[in-house]
């Protein structure tokens, strides 16, 4: 009952307090842990006893008399042997035995090797008596290895950890002989599985001779890898071996590892295996096997790719089989599995580019700025042997990257404290990181072969147009991929490619019926054109057509279209700003002048947050005007509408501050100040003329709202701060401070600021 559990917990707490005191030995004698553990009592009581024993061994062992230490050790060892020698008991009391094993490991850490020098030989000899006991002993050795080599940093002193590691190494020959004997002679599946799992914990620290100068690798590959029951544990062991960083002296051993594993897998796996389907419909063990397969090949190939390439000169099918396996696994619909493969493809593409061009990309450098190497239009005699080796594989990798391209940016639509809908870009999210890695990989692949990348993309686009593979997902990933390689082609190639893409997308938009379909296509058109500023800068008429089309989309009320139009507009304005402030051939005035004249009608259907984005975009155009007077005049035209609204509110406030308390007034003030702040972000110091118009009024408004808030709090107490009126006033004050902060950060006139 709950009451009994509470009483038991109180007793346990009292006993632990006694053990933590100087009277640990007497406390143990009083509680008689041995009697509780040997009797068929309630399991909860036994676990209470184990907790007390565990705490005593960990924290008070050195204070116990030697006789009592020996007695506890012998009792635990005998109890473990008794329970784990019987198959039925081992399976039926697995949780209890696991906890008992952990406590025995704590004793071993205290006693071995000084007070129990024969521990390893005792375990090995006992294992020969009974396979069930042997299985549990392997579990104990696994736990001990983890404690000493994996978790020792936080659990014991460095001197103690060093001593235990030395003891493990000195006696490991006995453990290896036991593992080898089990793997060669045992027919018990659970014992073999536990032995493989234990061996896995040894592989990162045992002397290399046990791995490479014995039959261990051959036995793992030939006996256990083909067996479904053992293949996951076996692959984990092989992956641990593949990841060893031990220098060129062992290259021949790693080549042998690659050859026998890949040969065995080609015999075991069907030639037409569909990893994506197997992962989706198979068991959990099948899914683990596919993931472990990816881990093995990526772990091996990243540091040892040169070894595999050398082997390919005599056995080309093996490297091709390994890479084909990775390509198949890359299509699995599981993000974690895909990331494993992506990391390798990124490494391979970067390495190939570096070797072909003799240029090492700087850390953090944008790969689209890299110089393309001589083009490789398929395997031909003029291409380097290494590029020919990977040509067919990289074509498939390009297809995978294009079909699985991640979303470039995520925008959160959130409601602020005043009930306004605002948009915030997500930064450093997993999705953004994934997109950046995929983008870099595809850019490297494009540099290695522009023609192949272009052909794959245009073929996929044609399948969208003819409807055979039409879906929103397929179109989105394709257009994200097209946008991601901006700058990776030569200017003429890019022009031809982009014209074809836009033409096909516009045709698709005309052909498809339904607002949802048209909205998806329109969003992708906007995204693609926004990613190619070099082309837009070189073709004014096309740039103007694109921007005017964006203005049309700003009146489209379908969800997401206006947001995409504003985002694309600010992106284009930022990258092509100078084109809009210059007088272009055949135009009566610069585009930005015409835009300011039509601004009220353009933004008439936009939400406030979208209007703020629009003002930032035009601010970049104004900033590009080099003539100071012309720039100030443009700024005045841009801010004419918010300035007029501001002047009207100030005029009404001069007759009575009551107007400032109206919710609509506070909302308008916040939006005007936000629009000004976005222009400051784009314009910088030249915003001085505009801030001069507002500055005195801003101070008065800030002071007025401060007094109103103080009065409200004085009258209504702390509750007043949660009212909508006070929240609205605080929003005006907050945005005022942000505007002034943004201007001060960007101002170049320190005397004016001071």
Topology:
Layout: H1 2-20, H2 24-31, H3 33-38, H4 43-59, H5 66-84, H6 87-92, H7 94-111, H8 119-127, H9 131-150, H10 152-155, H11 158-185, H12 189-202, H13 209-212, H14 216-224, H15 231-242, H16 251-268, H17 275-281, H18 284-312, H19 316-330, H20 335-357, H21 385-403, E1 411-415, E2 421-425, H22 430-448, H23 450-465, H24 472-484, H25 491-511, H26 515-530, H27 533-538, H28 540-553, H29 561-575, H30 577-581, H31 591-602, H32 608-623, H33 628-638, H34 640-655, H35 663-683, H36 688-716, H37 724-746, H38 750-753
Antiparallel strand pairs: 1-2
Helix pairs in contact: 1-2, 1-4, 4-7, 5-7, 7-9, 8-9, 8-11, 9-12, 12-15, 14-15, 14-16, 15-18, 16-18, 16-19, 17-18, 18-19, 18-20, 19-20, 19-21, 20-21, 20-22, 21-22, 21-23, 22-23, 23-24, 23-25, 24-26, 25-26, 26-29, 28-29, 29-32, 32-33, 32-35, 34-35, 35-37, 36-37
């Amino acid at each position: 009952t709950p009451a009994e559990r509470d009483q038991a917990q109180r007793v346990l707490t009292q006993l632990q307090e006694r053990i933590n005191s100087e009277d640990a030995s007497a406390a143990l004698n009083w509680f008689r842990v041995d009697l509780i553990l040997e009797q068929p009592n309630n399991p909860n009581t036994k676990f209470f006893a184990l907790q007390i024993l565990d705490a005593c061994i960990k924290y008070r062992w050195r204070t116990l008399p030697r006789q009592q230490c020996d007695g506890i050790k012998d009792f635990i060892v005998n109890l473990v042997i008794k329970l784990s020698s019987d198959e039925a008991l081992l399976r039926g009391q697995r949780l209890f035995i696991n906890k008992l094993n952990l406590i025995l490991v704590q004793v071993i850490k205290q006693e071995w090797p000084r007070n129990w020098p024969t521990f390893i030989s005792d375990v090995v000899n006992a294992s020969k008596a009974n396979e069930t006991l042997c299985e549990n002993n392997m579990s104990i050795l696994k736990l001990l290895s983890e404690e000493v080599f994996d978790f020792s940093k936080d659990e014991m002193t460095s001197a103690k950890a060093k001593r235990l590691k030395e003891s493990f190494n000195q006696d490991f020959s006995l453990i290896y002989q036991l593992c080898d004997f089990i793997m060669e002679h045992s027919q018990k599946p659970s014992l073999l599985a536990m032995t493989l799992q234990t061996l896995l914990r040894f592989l990162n620290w045992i002397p290399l001779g046990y791995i490479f100068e014995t039959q261990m690798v051959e036995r793992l590959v030939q006996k256990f890898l083909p067996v479904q029951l053992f293949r996951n544990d076996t692959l984990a062991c092989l992956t641990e071996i593949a990841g060893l960083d031990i220098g060129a002296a062992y290259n021949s051993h790693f080549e042998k590892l690659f050859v026998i594993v890949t040969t065995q897998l080609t015999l075991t796996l069907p030639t037409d295996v569909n990893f994506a389907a197997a992962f989706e419909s198979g068991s959990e063990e099948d899914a683990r096997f596919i993931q472990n397969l990816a881990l093995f090949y990526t772990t091996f190939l990243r540091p040892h790719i040169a070894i595999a390439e050398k082997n390919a000169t005599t056995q080309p099918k093996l490297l091709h089989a390994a890479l084909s396996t990775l390509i198949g696994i890359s299509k699995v619909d599981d993000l974690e599995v895909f990331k494993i493969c992506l990391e390798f493809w990124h490494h391979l593409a970067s390495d190939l580019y570096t070797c072909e061009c003799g240029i090492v990309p700087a850390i953090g450098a944008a790969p689209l700025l890299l110089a393309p190497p001589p083009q490789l239009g398929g395997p031909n005699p003029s291409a380097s042997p290494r590029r020919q080796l990977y040509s067919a594989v990289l074509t498939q990798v390009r297809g995978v990257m294009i079909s699985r391209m991640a979303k470039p940016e995520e925008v959160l639509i959130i409601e602020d404290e005043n009930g306004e809908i605002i948009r915030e870009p997500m930064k450093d999210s997993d999705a953004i990181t994934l997109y950046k890695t995929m983008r870099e990989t595809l850019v490297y692949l494009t540099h290695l072969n522009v023609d192949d990348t272009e052909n794959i993309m245009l073929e996929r686009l044609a399948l969208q147009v003819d409807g055979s593979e039409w879906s929103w997902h397929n179109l989105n990933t394709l257009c994200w991929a097209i946008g991601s390689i901006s700058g990776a082609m030569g200017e003429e190639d890019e022009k031809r490619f982009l014209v074809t893409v836009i033409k096909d997308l516009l045709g698709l938009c005309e052909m498809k019926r339904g607002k949802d379909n048209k909205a998806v296509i329109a969003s992708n058109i906007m995204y693609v054109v926004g990613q190619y500023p070099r082309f837009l800068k070189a073709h004014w008429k096309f740039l103007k057509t694109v921007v005017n089309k964006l203005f049309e989309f700003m009146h489209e009320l379908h969800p997401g279209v206006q947001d995409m139009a504003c985002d694309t507009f600010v992106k284009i304005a930022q990258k092509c700003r100078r084109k809009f402030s210059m007088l272009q051939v055949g135009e009566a005035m610069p585009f930005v002048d015409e835009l300011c004249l039509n601004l009220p009608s353009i933004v008439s259907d936009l939400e406030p947050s979208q209007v703020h984005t629009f003002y930032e975009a035009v601010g970049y155009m104004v900033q590009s005007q080099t003539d100071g007077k012309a720039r100030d005049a443009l700024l005045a035209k841009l801010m004419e509408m918010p300035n007029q609204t501001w002047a009207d509110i100030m005029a009404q406030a001069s007759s009575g501050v009551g107007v400032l308390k109206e919710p609509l007034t506070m909302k308008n003030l916040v939006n005007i100040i936000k629009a000004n702040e976005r222009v400051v972000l784009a314009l910088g110091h030249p915003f001085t003329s505009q801030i001069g118009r507002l500055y005195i009024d801003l101070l008065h408004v800030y002071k007025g709202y401060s007094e109103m808030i103080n009065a409200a709090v004085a009258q209504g107490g702390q509750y007043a701060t949660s009212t909508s009126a006070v929240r609205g006033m605080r929003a005006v004050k907050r945005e005022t401070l942000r505007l002034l902060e943004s201007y001060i950060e960007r101002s170049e006139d320190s005397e004016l600021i001071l």
